[in-house]
Write a structure and sequence with these properties.
With 267 residues, this protein is mainly α. The protein contains 8 helices and 2 strands; from the N terminus they run αββααααααα. A two-stranded antiparallel sheet has the order 1-2. It is rod-shaped, with a radius of gyration of 70 Å. It starts with 7 loop residues before the first helix and ends with a helix.
Length: 267
């Protein structure tokens, strides 16, 4: 069977169809290439974004770790500080306790010292010198010395001549350097005179006159000596004593009495 010849119009239609079909393929191939390019860019962008997110997450995790470490360090420092504060509070409490104890001990010691000082002062008071007026002068004597003299003088004034003379003798022996010594000798002579122990009285008066010729009581002691000599009937000796008294102590009160007695002896 013979092929039938194509009609011109049919051939043209085939060519057009073929061209159309070829152009369509070319169009599909270009679109496919375009789609493939877009997918690669998207994948690359996604990968970059994922890498950035991973970096941010890593940086955030590192920062959080550092912050946690710093926070822990701060907590440790605060804990150490709190422990130090507690320790300081404890030490302060101990120091306060020690201070209170020390203060109590010091106060107790001071109280004991004050009590001891008071007791010592009370014990020393009888031994501390005191100032007294004696024949118009201020002299210093021991309290016991003053008391002994005043006790003997009190017994003399009460007429207890025997006891007074014994006390005055004891005073002269015990206090040989006393400011009361010449007074004690004078009153010893008077105590013996009061007992009519004239010879002993003469010795007492002479001891005063010879040992302390400038003593305040010497004129009176010479008058007492003359009285003892009269009682012993030693009139010549009495006149001599009275004359010495008037000559040596003309302005004394004893001198006036001596003139009267001397006149009586001469008469």
């Amino acid at each position: 069977m013979k092929p039938q010849p194509f009609a011109p119009g049919a051939r043209l239609r085939r060519v057009c169809a073929a061209l159309t079909l070829g152009l369509g393929g070319l169009a599909w191939t270009g679109a496919a290439h375009a789609d493939l390019f877009a997918d690669n860019e998207a994948r690359r962008a996604i990968l970059q974004l994922r890498a950035q997110v991973a970096q941010l997450q890593q940086a955030q995790q590192t920062q959080q770790t550092q912050q946690a470490q710093q926070l822990q360090q701060v907590r440790n420092s605060m804990l150490d500080l709190a422990n130090q504060i507690d320790q300081l509070k404890s030490e302060i409490a101990q120091l306060r306790g020690q201070q209170d104890t020390t203060t109590q001990q010091v106060n107790s010691a001071l109280s004991k010292m004050q009590a001891s000082q008071t007791a010592l002062n009370q014990r020393l008071a009888p031994l501390e010198p005191v100032q007294v007026q004696l024949n118009g002068k201020t002299v210093t004597v021991a309290p016991a010395e003053k008391a002994a003299f005043e006790q003997a003088l009190g017994n003399f004034r009460n007429g207890q001549f025997s006891q007074a003379s014994a006390q005055f003798r004891g005073f002269i022996t015990q206090y040989p350097s006393s400011a009361y010594l010449n007074e004690a000798r004078y009153w010893l002579g008077n105590s013996l005179y009061g007992q009519q122990r004239y010879k002993d009285a003469v010795q007492a008066f002479q001891d005063l006159i010879q040992s302390a010729p400038n003593a305040h009581r010497v004129p009176e002691a010479m008058l007492g000596l003359a009285n003892c000599q009269v009682e012993l009937r030693e009139f010549k000796a009495a006149r001599i004593t009275l004359q010495r008294l008037i000559k040596q102590y003309p302005d004394s009160e004893a001198s006036s009495a001596a003139r009267d007695r001397l006149a009586k002896l001469r008469g």
